[in-house]
Design brief:
The complex is a heterodimer of chains A (109) and B (114). With 109 residues, chain A is mainly β. Chain A is built from no helices and 11 strands. Chain A is globular and about 40 Å long. Chain B starts with a strand and ends with a strand. The chains are: A mainly beta (109), B mainly beta (114). The interface between A and B is medium-sized, with 24 and 25 residues.
Chain lengths: 109, 114
């Protein structure tokens, strides 16, 4: 059974204070790892797809990296508008995404 | 930017009643999905749909649930004889193809069973 674990559950940062979110996975064969952002009362918003170990993707203040066992979402100099829950999901065989519990990020001004 | 739209945003239903949740996927997408998120829990996969048939379903998606694409734009999830534990946020998603294209989600329907 595919398992995805995200840490920490919650993270509170000051504006400009860089940090990283972790997504550990145990799967039978990774076909893709996906990062989403979810705002309260909204659906997950797609951020990145990573396919193989060593791959990196960047978008504004966010950078996602992938190893054989985990992925990191690095947030550089975050702003209050980066506050959200960040979800990690994996895809192995089939079409389903298996999600982690998410990390709730709060960035204080 | 194209988006997935879901209606209604909130549905309140008596236990035992049938409910239909509606979704309009992104127009050129071919794969459609339903997920649910019980309050405080993970987003969970329910079903995927392609070429007018179910391509994959989870253990949650039992005989109580059904999906349909009644026309060229809508994709529906029907829950027969709702239970209290069906209360959740239901998300529709779509993707252009099967091969690891990202799934794009709507903002969900909050289903409350009384």
């Amino acid at each position: 059974e595919d398992q995805v674990t995200q840490s920490p559950e919650a993270l509170r940062l000051q504006e400009g204070e860089s940090s990283s979110l972790n997504c550990s996975y145990t799967v039978s064969g990774l076909r893709g790892l996906f990062w989403y952002r979810q705002d309260p009362g909204k659906g997950p918003e797609f951020l990145f797809t990573l396919y193989s170990a060593g791959e990196e993707k960047e978008k504004e203040r966010l950078k996602a990296t992938l190893t054989k066992k985990e992925s990191f979402l690095h947030i550089t100099a975050p702003k209050p508008e980066d506050s959200a829950t960040y979800l990690c999901a994996v895809r192995t065989s089939g079409s389903r995404l298996t999600f982690g519990e998410g990390t709730q990020l709060t960035v204080n001004p | 930017e194209p988006e997935v739209t879901q209606t209604p945003s909130h549905q309140v239903t008596q236990m035992g009643q049938e409910v239909i949740l509606r979704c309009v996927p992104i127009s050129n997408h071919l794969y459609f999905y339903w997920y649910r998120q019980i309050l405080g829990q993970k987003v969970e996969f329910l079903v995927s749909f392609y070429n007018n048939e179910i391509s994959e379903k989870s253990e949650i998606f039992d005989d109580q649930f059904s999906v349909e694409r009644p026309d060229g734009s809508n994709f529906t999830l029907k829950i027969r004889s709702t239970k209290l534990e069906d209360s959740a946020m239901y998300f529709c998603a779509s993707s252009p193809a099967y091969d690891n294209q990202p799934q794009h989600f709507g903002d969900g329907t909050r289903l409350s069973i009384l």
